[in-house]
Every structure is written in structure tokens, then in C-alpha cells.
Amino acid sequence: MEMINININGKVFSVDAESTILEAATANGIHIPTLCTIKGIDSRASCRICVVEVKGERVFQPACATKVRKGMEVDTDTLAIRKSRKTTLELLLSRHAVDCHHCLRIGNSRCDDLDPAFCEMCFFCECVKDGCCELQALAREYKVDVLPYPHENIDQKVDKSTGSIIRNSNKCVKCRRCVDVCNDIQTVHNLSIINRGSNTKIVPEMDKNMKDSPCVQCGRCVDVCPTGALFVEEHTDEVLFYTHNYGIETAALVSSNTLKKLAELFRMETPVMEAELVVAGLRKIGVDYVYTDEVVNQLSAKDGEKALLKALETEKETVIITDSYAAEKFVKQNFAKLAPKLVTYDSPQRIFSKYMKQNFAGDQNHNTSDFRLIAVTEGGENAADAYENKSVDFVIPARELYSIFIRTGVNPKKRQPLKPDSIVVSPKELPATVFFAPVEWSMEKDIKQTEFVLSGNRIKAAIATNLGQVGVLLEEVQNGNSPYRVIRINA
Ligand code: SF4
Ligand code: SF4
Ligand code: FES
User: Ligand 1 in contact with 97 (CB < 6 A)?
Assistant: First the structure.
């Protein structure tokens, strides 16, 4: 890697010659605020929040899209820059339904009050992202305590057509993150940007609602949206109703994929929240049985293993296997000829649902045959699966669980850790091959290749960690030149 010297805020740093100003500053501990850019995708510099002064340039430059040059002199935090960022934020907020900052809207408070600790006591903010919204955090950082411009374009209909992934265009800041993820990473090409100026809109294909569009409900656009414009439908009221209802029992599955986000939201110093603290918090709000996901992950892997062994007996070509709701939809939509060959097995959420339905309702130890299942998990596809296939009654992402805890005054950080309930299975069921272990979604183009042994046979395989990778692997299968015996696909 070639290194060059540049000057940032009066100090010389040696930086990667290929980096942007943003990357160079971040690598050296200098904060530059951003909104539209996300790591892993080339920035389109659409928000102008990250502007900096570069000596010799007439206008401010976007740090996320400007490459460093030898000897470059950059200022990241002058008064003029702060003023420019603040004006940009005020303009963005003029086209944003400000359902948070209730204390600002009634005009009797200042942005200082929007310390997270203050927000935790306030029940008036209506936005699902309140407390974890990047726009709100920037408004706080730049002290946007009045909204000087008239509000425009905040009366668009909220798209709730899928019942799980909700699109509220009134909160969209047109950062394009969702468009880039849907097009460049997931290759679904559902979202695009239309019109210009203040009429600019992000829309699903042909401006349809999400349900009628080619959306496969992977939920990745939700994961990258910085505001409350895209989110997973909330179930706080129902969850609290059932947890407080003595005639109905509730059981929750806590997925380990939520623990990092919970630690972040509760501003913990550890990288993840201990699962036992989440168990304690859920019990406190009235959930009767709380499970963690180690055993259901293993049971799901075992189900995958059995399905694969069966498929290998008859399928002479590449076996395509998945437990992903969205990946299955993607194959049906884009590779119709391969769809009949697709082998599916139960995801951890579905395994949990089956286990509870078989072992819970008829069990004498339980007071009732009526129960509700809650999955605490990230991933819009789990919410879509719950809505479409009723695998569980409610899917609660970490963000919503945080808000439930805040609203009920339960702070899991301050509770005594509690052991989760046990899912009892025969030792014969476990363990399963690591090939079916949970995988994290990634923005990578490189596909993970692997080899594993199943029933004495060594198998050459690939694991796709996003839908773009799925597309590449299935093209090869379709063209008859796949080098793999097995492909596991994820969305
Ligand atoms: S859920 Fe997935 S497919 Fe649907 S719009 Fe978002 S990124 Fe695209
Ligand atoms: S919906 Fe969210 S991610 Fe997409 S452009 Fe709007 S604010 Fe950005
Ligand atoms: S973060 Fe650089 S222009 Fe948006």
C-alpha cells in the first residue's frame, strides 16, 4: 500500500494514497459526520453532510468522495463548515416528518434536552427510530434547535402493503443507501430514485407498493436506512398486552444477532449484551419462557443436513439449499427453472415455532393451551416469514426491544442475569455440520468456498452471504459450469 502525507486540521498524517479524505481522517481518529455513505459501497455524495475545506478548492468538498492527494491540506471542522452542515440539516429536516423532537415541536425546549438520557424519559416521540436515528443524532450534534424552513412533502401515504417492511417516504432523506444496497449488493433492482429537486422520491419498481413490486423482503434496505423511512412493523402494544395477560402464556426466542445492537443502544462498554441480561429483561416485562438460540441453531443445521443428505441421493448436479425466506423468493423470481430443484430446510425461527407448538400447548406443566411466540431477531426476512407463514406471532428487532424496555422502565443492564429456559432434545439430534451454522449478511462480492465431510463424503461447496452472490452462483448452475456440489444461499 503506497502511503502519502497530508495535512488534516494542521497536523501531518501518513495515509493510504488510495483512500478518501473520510477514510484517511477516520483511520486517524478524526470525526467527520456522514449520512449518505455506507462502508462497502462507493459514495454518491448526495447529502453534503461530510463537506470539508480543501486548500486551493473554491467550494467545500465531500470528504466521502474526494480522494487524498500528496501534500493536500484539509480542514474538517471550521465555523464555515459547521454552518454549512447545519444549513444542510435544516433543509433535510424541512422535508422530513419530524415525529421525534416533540419537545422541539412544541417550542419550549432546546436541543440540549435531547440527551439520550432525557429521551429515555419522554413518551411523546412517535418515530420508531427515535433514539437510534442518524439524522436525529446529527441534529443534536449540530444543535438544530429550530426548524427555519417551511415543511414540504410530508403528506405521502405510508406503504404498509407487505405487513412487515414498512416504507414511510415522509421520513426519507434521499441518501440512496437503500437503492444502492437493493441494486448493487442484493441485485434485486427494486428501488430507484425518481424526479428532481424537492420532488425527488425513492420508489419501488414502477412506483408500485412494496407488495406488488419485485421486492423479495430481504430487509437489507431497512438495515441501512439511517432514519425511520424504512422499518420492520412494530408489535409493542400486542407484545405488552400478551405479556401482561394471565390467560395467555408467552415464549420468546432471543437470537444472538441482536446482542451487538442491544449493547450499542444501551451504550454498554462490552461489544455485545450478555444474553442472560436480555433474558432477565424479558422475564421482567412478563414473558413467561425465554430461550436463547444455540439449540435451535443446531436443530436447524441438523434439518439442513438431513435435507441435504436426501437430496444428494437423487440429485446428480449442484444441490442448492436454503433456510432463507427471501433467498427462496429470489430464486423463484429470477431463476424460475432452478426453483423446482431448490432444497429448503427449517430456519431457527421455524424450528422454534415447531418445537413450541409440539411441546408446549399440550404439556401439563403449562397453565394454558393458548400462547404467543415472540422472536427477538434482526433481519426483515424473519418478520416477513412471520407475517406470511405465521412461523411466530411477533418479530421484534433489537431496536424495538430497546424501546419496549425503555417504555416499561426495565433496564436489562441493571438486572441480575438469568439463565434461559432449556429446549430439550435427544443427544442423537446434535451436533450438526458447521456448514449450516448461522452466517452474517455481508456486502462482499467474494464468495466463500468451503469443503466439508458428510456421511464420509468430502463435498465442495459455496456459501452465499448476499443475494448478489446468489445470482452469480446460480448463473453458473444455470449455464452448467458450477464447480460446486452444494451451494447454500442466504439473503
Ligand atoms: S427488502 Fe430487499 S429486495 Fe426489498 S426493496 Fe429492500 S433491499 Fe430491495
Ligand atoms: S428510504 Fe432510508 S435509506 Fe432509502 S433513501 Fe430514504 S432515508 Fe435513505
Ligand atoms: S456522507 Fe458524504 S456526501 Fe453524504
Answer: no
Asked if the structure places residue 53 within a domain, the reply is yes
Amino acid of residue 426 = S
Ligand 2 center to residue 225 CA distance, Å? 5
Residue 102 and residue 243 share a domain: no
Instruction: Supply the angle between the helices 134-141 and 79-94 in degrees, to the nearest 10.
Output: 140
Cα 438-389-163 angle, rounded to 5 deg: 100
Q: β-strand 73-75 against 51-54: which pairing, if any?
A: antiparallel
- In this prediction, residue 129 carries a pLDDT of 87
CATH of the domain at 31: 3.10.20.740
φ and ψ of 457, to 5 deg:
-100, 135
Instruction: Give, for 321, the enclosing helix (H) or strand (E).
Output: strand 319-322
* Ligand 2 pocket residue status of 173, Cβ below 6 Å: yes
pLDDT > 70? residue 325: yes
Domain with 149 in it: 95-232
CA of 284 to the centre of ligand 2 (A): 35
Nearest-angstrom CA–CA distance, 205 and 208: 6
For residues 456 and 392, membership in a common domain is answered with no
Q: Is the CB of 36 under 6 A from ligand 2?
A: no
Residue 385 located in a structural domain: yes
**Ligand 1 mutation pick, 193, 213, 216, 467, max ligand atoms within 8 A of CB:** 216
Q: How far is CA 15 from CA 21, 50, 235, 299, 372, in A?
A: 9, 19, 47, 48, 54
11 and 28 together in one domain: yes
Q: Is residue 301 part of a domain?
A: no
284 and 378 assigned to the same domain: yes
Per-residue pLDDT tens over the stretch 11-46:
999 999 999 999 999 999 999 999 999 988 989 999
Last residue in a domain, options 426, 457, 479: 426
Q: Are residues 389 and 461 in the same domain?
A: no
User: Relative to the CA of 175, which ligand 3 atom is closest?
Assistant: 4
Convert the pLDDT of each residue in 302-323 to its tens digit. 999 999 999 999 999 999 999 9
Strand, coil or helix: 63: coil
Residue identified by cell 441435504 is 308
